[in-house]
């Protein structure tokens, strides 16, 4: 399958940073952890996960900021150097920090195309956030094979093989 046919564009608020993704996401997380609440200034973060080589910076200058996470491994948040809007993050996720990008869905030009596949860290969600009954949700994190599609698991296996680790 030619993943280039699924190209989508995104960018920051001021328009300085523009990026392009060239496939559908591996999975879309709606994270309700306290760290995401603090880092986003909102009740959750909505992230679409993509292989890093399928995310291309088209224009603008970015800056990367390492912030702490509850796991202690930290996350690197990539922001526009001018307006400081976060466009993506990289988490350690079993040693795949540089291999998977967590695109902030709200920065995509067509952000309505990526509803969450799973709600994570729901034990710390705001009590007034009501999740649809049919949505997949977990108290903390999930088992990969329970949440990811077979196609996404195949894509993850390729990443794992390329770096010689197994996280799934």
Automatic annotation (TrEMBL):
Pfam families: GFA (PF04828). InterPro entries: CENP-V/GFA, Mss4-like_sf. The keyword Coiled coil does not apply. Residues 8-129 form the CENP-V/GFA domain. Keywords: Lyase, Metal-binding, Zinc. PROSITE patterns: CENP_V_GFA. Belongs to the Gfa family. PANTHER family: CENP-V_GFA DOMAIN-CONTAINING PROTEIN (PTHR33337:SF33), GFA DOMAIN-CONTAINING PROTEIN (PTHR33337). This is GFA family protein. The lineage of its organism: Bacteria, Pseudomonadati, Pseudomonadota, Alphaproteobacteria, Sneathiellales.
């Amino acid at each position: 399958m030619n993943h280039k046919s699924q190209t989508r564009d995104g960018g920051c608020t001021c328009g300085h940073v523009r990026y392009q993704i060239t496939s559908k996401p591996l999975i879309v997380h709606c994270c309700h952890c306290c760290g995401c609440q603090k880092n986003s200034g909102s009740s959750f973060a909505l992230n679409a996960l993509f292989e890093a080589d399928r995310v291309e910076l088209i224009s603008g200058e970015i800056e990367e900021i390492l912030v702490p996470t509850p796991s202690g491994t930290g996350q690197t948040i990539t922001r526009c150097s001018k307006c400081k809007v976060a466009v993506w993050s990289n988490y350690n996720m079993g040693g795949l920090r540089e291999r998977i990008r967590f695109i902030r869905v709200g920065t995509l030009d067509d952000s309505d195309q990526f509803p969450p596949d799973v709600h994570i860290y729901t034990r710390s969600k705001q009590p007034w956030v009501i999740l649809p009954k049919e949505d997949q949700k977990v108290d903390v994190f999930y088992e990969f094979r329970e949440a990811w599609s077979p196609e996404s698991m195949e894509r993850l296996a390729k990443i794992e093989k390329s770096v010689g680790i197994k996280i799934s």
